[in-house]
Amino acid sequence: MKNLNLASSALLVALALSCGQPAKKAFDGPAYLDESLPLEERVEDALSRMTTEEKVALTHAQSKFSSAGVPRLGIPEVWCTDGPHGIRAEVLWDEWDQAGWTSDSCTAFPALTALAASWDPSLAGLYGTVIGEEARYRKKDVLLGPGVNIYRSPLNGRNFEYMGEDPFLASRMVVPYVQGVQSNNVAACVKHYALNNQETARFFTNVTVDDRTLYEIYLPAFKAAVEGGAWAIMGSYNLYKGQWNCHNQYLLNDILKGEWGFDGVVISDWGGVHDTDQAITNGLDMEFGSWTNGLTMGMTNAYDSYFLAAPYLDRIRSGKVGVTELDDKARRILRLIFRTSMSPEHKRGKFTSPEHYAAARKIGAEGIVLLKNEGDVLPIKDARKILVVGENAVKMMTVGGGSSSLKAQHEVSPLDGLREALPGVEIVYERGYVGDAGGEYNGVTTGQDLSEKRSAAQLIADAVKAAQGADYVIYIGGLNKSDHQDAEGADRELYGLPYGQDAVIEALAATHPKLVVVNISGNAVAMPWVSRVPALVQDWYLGSEAGHSLADVLTGAVNPSGKLPFTFPVAMEDGPLKTAEQYPGVPGDRKWESSFGAVPILEETYSEGIYVGYRWYESKQIAPLFPFGYGLSYTTFAYGEPKVSKAVTTDGSVSVSVPVTNTGSVAGAEVVQFYVADPEASVDRPVKELKGFDKVWLEPGETKTVTVQLTRESLSFFDAARHAWVAEPGRFDVLVGASSADIRGTVSFELK
Prior knowledge:
The protein is an alpha/beta fold. 25% of the residues lie in helices and 20% in strands. Strands 1-2-3-4-6-9 form a six-stranded mixed beta sheet. Strands 10-17-16-15-11-12 form a six-stranded mixed beta sheet, with helices on both faces.
């Protein structure tokens, strides 16, 4: 392996040289190797010992996932890994093909939509800790995740990697994830910064958005991650204000490193760098690429041709640029190294441990959302025979979808999970529909044979016939990780379910009174049959323990407590994106000179402004299929009267409390949501905005008081003219409820 900890070797040499000598101090070597010294002192000492060539070498890749260290000084390389859901299989040094290891089969954790749907920051901390342990065990220094791009459209193929439509929810969930990862001396690289809200034309779309929308909707989760201590940020592929976001003066220098004081590294997305001069001056620290130099294949000494490699060094040697920016980049990279592989804590990590699988199972189960349960069809009870229908009941979902694709040590399918959970029940399976019979991504294969000779009509007929005599019919379908579904690189083409699934569901609904539909996806989908289905479950890509998590909820071993992290509209036309200028953009005057030829840069305008997700539907009084924050339980909860603290402090903070009682017969958890409305605002503001939540566990008959603290920030809007957050004096309403559409009580207060 090339990523040996050379610093440890250098330390041993230094200690060996001092053996037999009188002890003058605890450490008698270079200051940068003295782990007892403050971080910044070590960084400055190491920087002072480096040549210009060594500093430049730090700033660009030397392989698909690594950058150079300084061997002369014992400073190790930096090793990165995808993704946000598990540790990617090893690839060859300079190719995407698999390296052929037998020890890189990881634990696959649930997709981040599932984590966000748990509405539980403590689970986010658990998630970050266990995935950080897996990264550290594999000797990775940077985990390329989590993703916190806002869910702007249900067509975005990469929404499953993100944390929903609301900036406050994403902000609350990202911080403990980041801190959990970094507790293992692995840097979390929060992505994709910023305004990367689609896969269509992601390499050449220039986004126009007003400052208020930028600051209120698209930046808060990134800012929260920085304030929470994130050590790395990844730039996105698209452009903003005409500059590529991997070297963008406004996003990286002015906001990230200027306003927010970020002291970590900015890492490019793979192949996201386009210009040496902008890469030098506009905030980029480390350049990585997909294909050899990020743009083309087959070049000799390709990594020397990166924008921040030989071209950078040539500019320094010719006097065209100085070394001020270089020293800042090197300083940040050294800081990253001393926080990770050269940290004094020396964490070892763990890999595919029983604790990691237990964490994956728990996170998955708590993220599942019960959308409908007429007649208390669920949980499953008194069943002798169950028919399971649908390709997603058996299809492996850990392989595919883009850079988050994994080589999992195992993956429990929903069908196997149900059979394991109900050993005394006859469980019959029918395919129902044919979606994607493939199962390969970058050399990782599922090994499944999903070929099918029956026609679509015959598959439906066989499923309907098999339903006779069954106590339950459980349909498990939805999307998958194929192109134009939930996958990197291409957006969905239709809002409805693919592969003719609506016809299968309609036929089963007409056949059996106890039909349970399980939708596996990372996006909202159209459900024209929803009124004819008694029970409906929103499942997600849940990784290694997917089948166990789903079975836990369907059988009642776990009482569902997930809430939707984004709105399900009835139809696409109900949403805010109405024109090609809004999505996916229209060709402008500029062209991108790429390896594919001259490509027109698309111009895209976020003219819906702050009205994203539930903010849009409420402003237009359009009823969604299922609202943001919605989710049912096998028990019921009653809310008391919300109360606000009598005094509003000088900093604008106020405490709001509400008693919540479990009025059912089953223990369960409720997510209590606090929305703020500003009815006296001088500017246009949403009907209400999420500004607090808490997940509370209650035994039957138990009551607990849930309290949140609202601050001046909770009451503020961004005033673009003043470039400041403003909380105007006057009345504010706090609406407390079980979802954005299910408000159980309102309380008001005056901000003086």
